Amino acid sequence: MTPSAFRLMVVLNFIVPMAGLAIEITGSPFTLAMPVTRSEGILLAMLVAVLALIVAITIGLCLFARWSRPAALALTALGLAAIAFSDPSANDGYVEALSELSSLLTGAVLAAAYWSPVGRLFEPGSAEADLESVFS
């Protein structure tokens, strides 16, 4: 696993669920009723906050920031817990396939971040110099 391959996996792990979300939004008969109720506003604010967190974690993982590994792991655990409260029959085949691919990519990213030579790049110090022979 090289740093560039890891970054590619991280970026794909961002793009795949966003594609699924786009398919789900464009395929649903969503209409924005005015005025927005308080519960809809809270859900929308939570969605925006989670999307901002996902973007921040993706950037952190690409830059090998120390905080990004535990943040990605925690967000994955929260996402798995949220699945218990979602409606499983709401997704069509394409969205479900992209969701499964996203789960596989998330597992691969977390495994690479913790148990491959790339994981040393998240540690403080001169990991790049130590791992130069591994990545060349």
Write a structural description.
The structure is a single chain. The protein has 136 residues and is an all-alpha fold. It is 71% helix and 0% strand. The protein has helices at residues 3-27, 38-62, 68-83, 93-115, 127-130, 132-135. It starts with a helix and ends with a helix.
Helical run tally: 6
Strand content: under 5%
Shape: elongated
* Contiguous runs where pLDDT drops below 50 for at least 5 residues: none
Sheet bearing the most strands, described? none
Estimated structural class: mainly alpha
Helix content: over 70%
Secondary-structure element string: HHHHHH
Radius of gyration: 18 Å
Task: Give the helices and strands, then pairings.
Blueprint: H1 3-27, H2 38-62, H3 68-83, H4 93-115, H5 127-130, H6 132-135
Features:
136 residues; 6 helices; mainly alpha; 0% strand
Brief summary:
Helix content is 71%, strand content 0%.
